[in-house]
């Protein structure tokens, strides 16, 4: 019998993947990671894409520095 799961394949670097896994653990009752495939790929629920994107944007804003000459 064939089983299928609808979701989104996320390709990213290792630190970003770790951030996504941490975010998933923090939102445990609404866990969105379906499969942890390899070092650079995760299969997630479709509804979580916007949540992941927003949290990554916040992280990038916190870690962005502007050089003032």
From TrEMBL:
Keywords, alphabetical: DNA damage, DNA repair, Nucleus, Transcription, Transcription regulation
Entry GO CC: transcription factor TFIIH core complex; transcription factor TFIIH holo complex
Pfam families registered for this protein in UniProt: Tfb5 (PF06331)
Top-rank lineage group of the source organism: Eukaryota
Coiled-coil spans in chain: none
SMART domains for this protein: Tbf5
Intracellular or extracellular location(s): Nucleus
Protein purpose: In NER, TFIIH acts by opening DNA around the lesion to allow the excision of the damaged oligonucleotide and its replacement by a new DNA fragment. In transcription, TFIIH has an essential role in transcription initiation. When the pre-initiation complex (PIC) has been established, TFIIH is required for promoter opening and promoter escape.
Family according to the record: Belongs to the TFB5 family.
Subunit structure: Component of the 7-subunit TFIIH core complex.
Protein name: General transcription and DNA repair factor IIH subunit TFB5
Species: Rhodosorus marinus
């Amino acid at each position: 019998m064939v089983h299928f799961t609808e979701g989104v394949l996320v390709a990213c670097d290792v630190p970003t993947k770790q951030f996504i896994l941490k975010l998933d653990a923090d939102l445990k009752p609404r866990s969105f990671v379906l499969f942890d495939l390899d070092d650079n790929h995760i299969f997630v629920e479709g509804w979580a894409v916007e949540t992941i994107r927003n949290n990554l944007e916040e992280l990038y804003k916190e870690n962005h520095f502007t050089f003032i000459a």
